[in-house]
Structure prediction request, 588 residues.
Amino acid sequence: MKEIMVVAEHRRGELRDITWEMLSKGRSLAEAMEGTLSVVLLGKGVKPFAEALRSKAHRVYLIEDDRLEFYNSETYERVLFQFLSEKKPFLTLIGHTAQGMDFVPALAIRLGWPLATDCIGIEPKDDSFTLIRQIYGGKINAEVSFVRKAPYLVTLRSGAFSVEEKKPIEGEIVTTSSPLSDEVLGRRFIEYVEASVGEVDITQADILVAVGRGIKDAENIPLVKEFADSIGGALACSRPVVDKKWLPKSCQVGTSGKTVKPKVYIAIGISGAFQHVAGMKGSGTIIAINKDPKAPIFSVAHYGIVGDLFKIVPVIKDKIKEMKK
Amino acid sequence: MNIIVCIKRVPDTADADLAIDRSGRDIEKTGLAFDLNEWDSYAIEEAILLKERFGGTVTVLSMGGEDTNESLRKCLAMGADEAIRLTDPAFSGSDGFATAKVLAQAIRRLPYDLILTGTQAEDDGFGEVGVMVARLLGLSHVAIVTRVEMEDGKIRAHRELEGGLEEVVEVKLPALLTIQTGINEPRYVSIMGIRKVAKKEIKVWGLSDLGLKEEEVGLKGSDIGLERLFLPLVGEGAQILEGKPEEVAAKVFEILKDKGGLV
Prediction:
């Protein structure tokens, strides 16, 4: 029987959402292929996670080791190389996250197994899979297939797969020994560093006016700031604006920044890459201004304005000032 | 210190309206501007900053056709010392894995202490090539790097995690880092700057120069192959507000008033 293996992801005492997303997709794949679903968990003192995962898989492989207290690409690669070489699951699912992106490509080389990264769709086809990936920043989808044979490694994008409620499985916990010894590693974990909150905590704002790459230049930021001020909103932004140092990191909304849920979110000159959308899709009302009618931001927004922000924003700003009187 | 930077030339699609071509397997490229992959511009800048502080050389590598010379020259104008282009008809159809094999094989022929790549490319977005190159060469690596410090033959790197969190790690040299956008401010290259390096030799290495076999590269040497391209399904989508700017502004005012977006 074919086995589907999920590599659980956790950090600082919490299982991450991607783990449940992979288990949900893994279960429907296992059902479609009449296979079984397993999950492997690496860490130190993570037995409670194993208990929590039992309801979602037929087997929970638990590999505990003091050396696995903090994630390290080199220990993860060694442990999973040993484990997966023995088990040879037909398909292994791992998150395309900061963690997965760091160790999976190296693991794939070491195992000699084919890898498809950052997939937003996966369905069984013959004795393999059809995979969907996004290219060109999400503007085009690509259907790809494996050139080589199983076992397969696939990394899934966070938030691309919904978590469906299904009958609990109550699988068994299988304690597995760690192959690590006191070998010398080339890489060492030092510490976590938290990003600063900044002057304004954008996660607490009721109204956010967010600006993106479309603002073109640091000189144009005041235009959006004045607009935000006129409606009593705080200023936020997407990644390119922080990369260019036009606004501080504390203003960034998205996967690598803040997750926000204001009453109103106004996205100006933001195309709506999934990394940004992941951080703001829970907002009450979303208004987007963008010149590209096909910009993905319009599929998440409630209201859209297609046009040049430099023409539209000043008019809206003046109109609001006038009508507030 | 000798640094190697792997780069890619990609179409600039951030503001472009993309269409799929008649083959159904590629995008319509006419009219698109091409440039250095955004992540790679940060990687080359970081390499030059390190060279300015610690001395040594910066060598740029790229797999691609003759057009790629343009991006390699941009890197030379930014301050790289040498550029090598890896090209062969057999490379066409290569995915991230096949590309990593070509790059690693080229790097084996060069002296290095540190290798930098972008975290991912704007076009395919595999996010796997750098880390694969590291493993093929047997090197330690750090992915998604937002800060680099160096002392005593070790690199202390910050890498970006989700939610604004960073992880600080230490790696021994030689090592490979995949660079995240925003780590520095890539320097501006003037037309004069490009002209100055116009005559500089760009070495070209092919399949046999690299000692690779045809079945190791291209589609045959890849993990995955493309079946077809299609446009993403657009969800229900936004209600588009139309009219003159003044009319649109009035509608926005009403929405804000209604939804609590006015304080």
